[in-house]
Amino acid sequence: DARVTQTPRDKVTEMGQEVTMRCQPILGHNTVFWYRQTMMQGLELLAYFRNRAPLDDSGMPKDRFSAEMPDATLATLKIQPSEPRDSAVYFCASGLVVGGNAEAFFGQGTRLTVV
Amino acid sequence: AQSVTQLGSHVSVSEGALVLLRCNYSSSVPPYLFWYVQYPNQGLQLLLKYTSAATLVKGINGFEAEFKKSETSFHLTKPSAHMSDAAEYFCAVSYGNNRLAFGKGNQVVVIP
After folding, report:
1. What is the pLDDT of residue B46?
2. Does position A99 have pLDDT exceeding 80, yes or no?
3. What is the DSSP letter of A86?
């Protein structure tokens, strides 16, 4: 059963620490998305990659967030330094995007709490 | 910018009653449309999608949605609510630029 795997599921960290979230997309998918979910803002697109190349990261605070795909089986989202306002659930999703049909399969998320 | 509107953050429905969740999109360009469901502490799961093949789309768990271009709508329905339908439901749109934009979501509560 193919699925998107995210680690860790939960992370509690102190303000100022570096946080790294990892995602293993579904094999064969060409697009990876990072979303952030909060009560106030709902689901926000942070960044997405196509064939491992970043297509759009305009949703990310550039000074502290970075997203990479070192290889086809791993996507990472880093926050350095972390702040309490970064507390949220971060979702990775992958999809086989053809002709603009951006159907996405979601992981179970990383719940980040910055204290 | 592409966007979807979902009205009413919380929707209460009696068990066995019709579930109706409204979604309107903003564009004159036919989009790709999706409905996702999120159960507590889970990721989003695709319920159904519209990709211009048919205006009435059937999804999982007895849900269906109808694309109405004249109303720019893609409302989600289920004839008879079940307790297991309690979850949050998101409408999403893509206009062919690989971006998937989500509505604010509807939290569905099923009353026994």
Report:
1. 93
2. no
3. G
The DSSP H or E segment spanning A49 is strand A42-50
Which residue type, as a one-letter code, is found at position A110?
Answer: T
Model confidence pLDDT, tens digit, residues B13-55? 999 999 999 999 987 676 789 999 999 888 999 999 988 778 8
Residue in A101, A110, A111 to test binding to B, most B beta-carbons within 10 Å: A101
Q: Which residues of B touch A93 (CB under 8 A)?
A: 43-44, 100
- C-beta atoms of A106 and B44 within 8 A: yes
How far is CA A71 from its chain centroid?
15
Alpha carbons within 13 A on the beta-carbon side of A66: 11
CA distance B33 to chain A (A): 9
Burial label for B102, CB within 10 Å (0-12, 13-18, 19+), is buried
Q: Do A100 and B96 touch (CB under 8 A)?
A: yes
Asked if A35 and A47 touch (Cβ cutoff 8 Å), the reply is no
Listed by number, the residues of chain A in 43-72 with a beta carbon closer than 8 Å to a beta carbon of chain B are: 43, 45, 48, 50, 55-56
> For strand B10-14 and strand B106-111, is the pairing parallel, antiparallel, or unpaired?
parallel
Could you give the C-alpha distances from A54 to A46, A112, B33, in angstroms and in order?
Answer: 11, 23, 24
What are phi and psi for residue A99, nearest 5 degrees?
60, 30
Give the torsion sign (CA, B108, B79, B100, A70): positive
